[in-house]
From TrEMBL:
It comes from Carpinus fangiana. SMART domains: CRAL_TRIO_N, SEC14. CDD domains: SEC14. Residues 80-240 form the CRAL-TRIO domain. This is CRAL-TRIO domain-containing protein. Gene3D superfamilies: CRAL-TRIO lipid binding domain (3.40.525.10).
Length: 337
């Protein structure tokens, strides 16, 4: 049930044409950016081509967008800029370039993201803004440049620095994952995992069988920094800075200064991104109306299967933590003897 057939798409389209709520229609237009059929296909894929389930998922998504004013979120900058810089320094994500096929390459510093410089609401706001900027600006620009529809990106996940202490971040990561799964399905073509330490490998071995086959096929765990494999699908200039040489160390600081570090606010992508949000706020004359505070977004209930995966990760981390503690105790005993 991988690719929706024409009949399923036709049925789904008919159901959406029956929607007479103007707000739902408007937010759907803002979401599909001129490609309604491709959007329907994404939701069908996310629900294994079940039209009724895909329709419910999409309507729930549109209602979530209306209730949380997602269409206006790109006009709500995180201010002051020093606070936004702290968010960027602790939530490592950036656009490093494009694949040879024209897909945006999104880099994520999973292992070194600390999420400890601001409230949860700021991180959720920042993540949704990144999603919306990708969908409303980056992907349409890539589509125009390539002359064909580009509706998804590639993600390179750097596990450098991943430790058992990351257990403290699982709740927030689960929230972000739930938002993506329910409201931005099928926006990632492939996930490339690089610089994976033992902690990741041990957890992935247990979690992998629980992940849906559709998602599992998208995940590729590469050797080391993944440079040689990634160079088959993108040019050197589009490689995330942490993939450019083996043993590059911290994904936070390697590269030739902050302008090469796609996580940094000084990187061209983030400068353009933040400037865009400020411009949108100015156009809406909303800057003076924004109280200094985060945007609070309702978090949808996660799919029971996803909740089970999160619980499994927590359990596995606790096991590793206990094993690590026992190992330290035994080492200490040896030293004492």
């Amino acid at each position: 049930m991988g690719i929706p057939n024409e009949e399923a798409i036709k049925q789904f389209r008919s159901l959406m044409e029956e929607v007479d709520d103007e707000q739902l229609k408007n937010t759907f237009k803002n979401m599909h950016q001129g490609y309604p059929t491709e959007t329907l296909v994404r939701f069908l894929k996310a629900r294994d081509c079940n039209v009724a389930k895909a329709h419910k998922m999409l309507v729930d998504c549109l209602q979530w967008r209306i209730q949380n004013e997602i269409d206006q979120i790109l006009a709500k900058p995180i201010i002051p800029v020093d606070l936004y810089r702290e968010v960027r320094d602790s939530q490592l994500i950036g656009l490093s370039g494009y694949s040879k096929e024209g897909l945006p390459v999104i880099a994520l510093g999973v292992g070194l993201s600390t999420f400890d410089k601001a409230s949860v609401h700021y991180y959720v706001q920042s993540h949704i803004q990144m999603n919306e900027y990708r969908d409303r600006v980056v992907l349409p620009s890539a589509t125009k440049k390539r002359g064909r529809y580009i509706g998804a990106c590639l993600k390179v996940l750097d596990m450098t620095g991943l430790k058992l202490s990351a257990l403290n971040q699982i709740k927030l990561l689960s929230v972000i994952s739930t938002i993506d799964d329910l409201n931005y399905p099928e926006k990632t073509d492939t996930y490339y995992v690089v610089n994976a330490p033992y902690v990741f490998s041990a957890c992935w071995k247990v979690v992998k069988p629980l992940v849906q086959e559709r998602t599992r096929r998208k995940i590729q765990v590469l050797q080391g920094c993944g440079r040689d494999e990634l160079l088959k699908i993108m040019d050197y200039g589009s490689l995330p800075h942490f993939c450019r040489r083996e043993g590059s160390g911290s994904s936070r600081h390697c590269g030739n200064g902050n302008t090469d570090n796609c996580f940094s606010l000084d990187h061209a992508f983030h400068q353009q991104f933040y400037d865009y949000i400020k411009q949108q706020a100015s156009l809406m004359e909303s800057v003076s109306l924004i109280r200094q505070g985060s945007v609070h977004v309702n978090i949808p209930e996660p799919d029971p299967k996803d909740a089970m995966i999160t619980k499994t990760i927590e359990t596995e981390f606790h096991k590793l933590e206990n094993q690590n503690g026992l190992s330290k105790s035994l080492n200490g005993l040896k030293v004492g003897l």
